[in-house]
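Reviewer 2 asked us to include a model.

Predict the structure of this chain.
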Amino acid sequence: MKISKILSDTVLLASLILCGLAVIAEMINAQIEDNRLIRQVETSPDVRTLGKVTDSTPTENNSNKLIRLDDGTTLILDTTDDIPAGVTAVLRRTDKRPGEQQNWLCLKALSTEHTTCYRLKGNLF
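Predicted model (structure tokens):
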């Protein structure tokens, strides 16, 4: 085998390994950022009380829930969690980057201090 072919194959393999490592590093950074935002939203103040959940229905593919509030508002959450009627829905915000806010729908039960938050896509208000 020629040395140039061996070097060419080695460079190609090294390039593929570096690309793979770059993808893995980006995925790890995204996970770290998500965890930071989740910790931040848990301690963020409520921006607005949206209402009480009256109904929670899975969508056709069961990967989302259609949430209905007592004022008639409907929202789609990217979750398969069971969401009971009667919990209070509040809006919270976190700063994803300086000047770029992320909206969250947080569900609070009256009987406990437990709050579960779900990321909302797009701009609300």
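The beta strands are 48-58, 65-69, 74-77, 88-97, 100-108, 115-119. The longest strand covers residues 48-58. We have added this to the supplementary material.
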